[in-house]
Specification:
heterodimer, A: mainly beta, 8-stranded mixed β-sheet, 19 strands, B: Gyrase A, domain 2, Cyclophilin, 4-stranded mixed β-sheet, about 20% helix
């Protein structure tokens, strides 16, 4: 172990990418005036935890895997930790198959592969590799921005990802297991504050937003999560001049059904924002599954 | 309160939306905010009638952010010229963009305005434009100008693919597509100027506050 060093450089070969496999770090905050979305890991707490488990700094680039079904083979001995969504993890090696732990560091030997099964809880796995994912940065970040196409392209079958040799690392911490719980399967409650255009809605809309249980639709990606339920009533139908929108905003298009904006959301929008989810709760939305219930409090 | 017409609207626990009466107010307040951000301000995002300011509320409490936004006097006149630190000064602090005025919608724009295509070109090149705000895509700037008299509606249906460098008009705005994308603006010309280069510093040629002049070049 090279404590304080940069780690031996190796590679992960993407034998199966699953539905969407992205490289993410802390994103590109502070450049919204240029039209650049913040992007970055949708669940930054899970990403930072995975990094910590393998001795990386909190904002080293990790892999963000949607739903599972990926197979990654290591070219050299590689420490890995998986957090976020929870599902079956196994290491496939010449000596057979063994289970791999969730939210704990484990080692792949050269030639071994990590198979990540379908997510049972949540939708986004985070995989940290010791030394970080070593792709070039764009505008200060290695994140894939799915809206504007900045950063590395989504990883595909056969791609090879350089590992280590980029970010400074410390020792792999002597932790058996991080005290993390799997994303909840039932109704999720997100704390919400009034939005800038609450007055564009009927007086009852603020209570209506919080009284109902909303359903996550299949239109849920890194840009936002579209919710279904009884539409919120607007009292103004004119066009809103384009204005800056925050991550966590509940933007309401003419349908009356809110969209919860996540990290890749456009920096400005033309529909009124009825409410804004508290910053620390936004990450909970990144693990919502289609059909799952959401309540705003 | 000297800053009448400035409404601070809530936008969650880490941002405030400054709602203003007109785009002119945005153009006067934005440079003032850009010139004096306290520690903890993350993003200052101008819009058509508003400015969104986000912060790290561990460093800058929301109340302190609101006090700064309420108390900062706007510039007395909309400042044109280059935004601080952009380094994209042309002559007289203005970005010059060479344009071939051969856009597919030039005739239609002239018809909508009741004039000739040559007059559209004359108005577009005769005006001084200011980047008011961005947001459609990285490097896209909404340009405004006093007295250009070029306001036209968007196309009835957007084009699936507008090439990089296309120069367009929509509403009170002009703009240049930084890279290929779908788009509904009326296209009047094209430029070879590089609007967006993620490897350059800054990555965007047209950042809010910058002045722009269009110059006609031959096809």
């Amino acid at each position: 172990m090279t404590a304080g060093g940069r780690g031996a450089a190796g590679e992960l070969r993407i034998e199966r990418s699953g539905p969407l496999l992205l490289i993410q770090d802390a994103g590109r905050p502070g450049q919204a005036a240029l039209g650049v979305p913040a992007s970055g890991a949708l669940d930054p707490v899970a990403a930072a935890a995975a990094n910590r488990l393998v001795g990386n700094g909190p904002s080293s680039a990790v892999l963000e895997l949607l739903l599972g079904g990926a197979l990654l083979r290591a070219s050299a001995p590689t420490w890995i930790a998986v957090t976020g969504a929870a599902g079956a993890l196994e290491v496939q090696g010449p000596g057979g198959v063994r289970p791999a732990p969730w939210t704990a560091a484990f080692r792949l030997d050269a030639g071994e592969a990590l198979a990540i099964g379908p997510a049972q809880y949540g939708v986004r796995y985070y995989l940290a590799v010791r030394g970080g994912v070593g792709v070039p940065a764009t505008l200060g970040s290695r994140s894939s921005d799915t809206l504007s196409g900045l950063g590395p392209a989504p990883l595909r079958d056969g791609d090879v990802v350089p590992v280590g040799g980029v970010d400074p690392i410390g020792p792999v911490p002597p932790l058996d297991l991080l005290p993390a719980s799997a994303p909840p399967a039932g109704e999720v409650t997100l704390r919400v504050l009034p939005g800038p255009r609450l007055d564009w809605f009927a007086a009852s809309a603020w209570d209506a937003l919080r009284a109902r249980s909303w359903t996550v639709t299949a239109e849920a990606d890194r840009v936002g999560v579209r919710l279904d339920g009884p539409p919120l009533e607007r009292v103004r139908d004119d066009e809103l001049p384009s204005e800056g929108v925050v991550t966590g905003a509940l933007q309401v298009p003419p349908s009356g059904l809110p969209i919860l904006f996540l990290a890749d959301h456009p920096v400005t929008g033309g529909y009124p924002v009825v409410g804004v989810v508290r910053r620390v709760d936004v990450r909970l939305a990144s693990q919502l599954r289609p059909g799952q219930a959401v309540r705003f409090r | 309160m000297t800053n009448a017409g400035r409404r601070l609207l809530p936008s969650g626990d880490a941002a405030v939306l400054v709602d203003l009466d007109a785009l002119d107010d945005v153009l006067r307040l934005y440079p003032a905010l850009r010139a004096s951000p306290p520690a903890g301000v993350l993003d200052i995002v101008p819009g058509a009638r508003s400015i969104l300011v986000t912060c790290d509320s561990d460093v800058l409490p929301l109340a302190a952010l609101r006090a700064w936004l309420a108390g900062t006097p706007a510039a007395t006149a909309a400042r044109t010229g280059t935004a601080a630190g952009t380094g994209v000064t042309g002559s007289a602090g203005t970005v010059q963009i060479p344009v071939r005025y051969d856009g597919e919608d030039l005739d239609e724009v002239a018809r909508l305005l009741g004039t000739t295509p040559r007059d559209v070109v004359r108005r577009h090149t005769g005006a001084t434009w200011t980047v008011a705000f961005g947001g459609f895509a990285p490097g896209f700037g909404y340009l405004v100008s006093r007295g250009a008299a070029l306001a036209v509606p968007r196309r009835p249906s957007p084009r699936p693919l507008v090439p990089a460098g296309a120069v367009g008009l929509a509403g009170e705005f002009s703009g240049v597509y930084p890279r290929p994308s779908p788009g509904g603006w009326q296209l009047i010309g094209r430029t070879d100027a590089v609007l967006w280069d993620p490897d350059a510093e800054p990555a965007a040629l047209l950042v809010p506050g910058v002045s722009v002049r269009f110059r006609e070049v031959g096809s």
